[in-house]
Amino acid sequence: MLELEFEVLGERLQVWAGNALLLETKELLDCAQAMLDQVLRRADEPEEARLLQEVIRRREAAEQRVAELQAQLERLQNPR
């Protein structure tokens, strides 16, 4: 069990492990963008193009998951 805590600050999602702040949403997406940029520089090869599509798919899935987690946290923090 990871025992992570999630916190929403404004529009940011933060993940904590004990007292340690792990990467925030923006940092995770920045990392994914850097990986995408690296693949784009080499995208003229067929395998690189396939990898690019995979990176894009994963980034979109990660963004969707972050949005779902933020909505879930908001519901948990503000029950009606």
Short description:
The protein is of the alpha+beta class and 80 residues long.
List keywords for this structure.
80 residues, 2 helices, 61% helix
Describe the structure.
The structure is a single chain. The protein has a domain at 25-70. It is 61% helix and 18% strand. The protein contains 2 helices and 3 strands, in the order E-E-E-H-H. The chain has helices at residues 25-41, 46-77; strands at 4-9, 12-17, 20-21. A 3-stranded antiparallel sheet has the order 1-2-3. Strand 1 and strand 2 form a beta hairpin. The model has no long low-confidence stretch (mean pLDDT 80).
List the topology elements.
Blueprint: E1 4-9, E2 12-17, E3 20-21, H1 25-41, H2 46-77
Antiparallel strand pairs: 1-2, 2-3
Helix pairs in contact: 1-2
First and last CA, distance: 29 Å
The best one-word shape is elongated
Q: Tally the helices: what do you get?
A: 2
Q: What composes the largest sheet?
A: 3 strands, antiparallel
**Can you give the mean pLDDT?**
80
Name the beta content range: 15-25%
Rg over CA atoms, rounded to whole Å, is: 16 Å
Fraction of residues in helices?
55-70%
- Please provide the count of β strands: 3
- Order of SSEs, N→C? EEEHH
Low-confidence stretches: none
Q: How are the strands of the largest sheet arranged?
A: 1-2-3
Tell me the structural class. Answer: alpha+beta
